[in-house]
Amino acid sequence: MSAVRGGTPYGATTIAGGDGSRQPSQEELAIARYQGEHVAGLAVKLHG
Question: What's the whole-model pTM score?
């Protein structure tokens, strides 16, 4: 595997080394940001 990327049908993910040497990529952060905004929007709609 040449690149580790996070993102599954279930949501944002990231893989980090045990020592924390690998940080989330810009792509992983963008996926997480989109998911957070989407969930927040749904919460606002449900709250009414």
Answer: 0.74
